[in-house]
């Protein structure tokens, strides 16, 4: 199985279609006003409506009000929800949608406990920790902090591993070789400016995944 890829922080239809053309498995739409990659519900609906079948659409939220999430779900085709705040397992599961829980990793983070707490999640997405920032910093964290047990978990045994945080075409091959993640998540590493994707960078990133991404 090839390592899966999500291109996150999509704000334009042409960028979503470039991701699809390059072979991405999923795109991410950010519903968080503090992010430079935030999209309106109308933008998101336009993008999601025009994607082909078998491309997943993931909605990213940060400590959002449940009413807001439900309002987005009423207008936008989302296949999964991704939570980047301090949401509890119960809050994440309240929308009857597959969900991904993002964990901002620092040395004292007990990732095995996180996996246990969020055992109902489809995946744990591991990102770099930066004080006061929910994600999307473009920083790489110390991959040695990831327990080996998390890199061998299968879809039937608990949440799989999605690696994020500063990935780009120069390091994604090494990340796949070292960690064997189920999927990788990239945003800034394939951009020409915040929120503006670069089709050539997306294609180059995807080629690196194809070259290195046969999971063990």
For the largest beta sheet, what order do the strands appear in spatially? 1-2-3-4-5-6-7-8
Distance between the termini: 8 Å
Number of domains: 1
Structural class: alpha/beta
- What does the overall shape look like? globular
The total beta strand count reads 10
Q: Helical residue percent? A: 25-40%
* Number of helical stretches of at least 4 residues: 7
How are helices and strands ordered from N to C? EHEHEHEHEHEEHEEEH
Query: Beta-strand percentage?
Result: 15-25%
CATH superfamily: Aldolase class I
* CATH fold field value: TIM Barrel
Structure report:
With 216 residues, the chain is α/β, with parallel strands linked by helices. The chain has a single domain (4-212), classed as TIM Barrel (Alpha-Beta Barrel), CATH 3.20.20.70. Helices cover 29% and strands 21% of the residues. It contains seven helices and ten strands. It has helices spanning 13-22, 41-49, 66-75, 89-93, 111-117, 172-179, 199-212, and strands spanning 4-7, 26-30, 56-61, 80-83, 99-105, 123-128, 160-163, 183-186, 191-193, 196-197. The strands form two sheets. Strands 1-2-3-4-5-6-7-8 form an eight-stranded parallel β-barrel, surrounded by four helices. A two-stranded antiparallel sheet has the order 9-10. Strand 4, helix 4 and strand 5 form a beta-alpha-beta unit. The longest helix has 14 residues, at 199-212. The protein is globular, with a radius of gyration of 16 Å. The termini are close together. The relative contact order is 0.18.
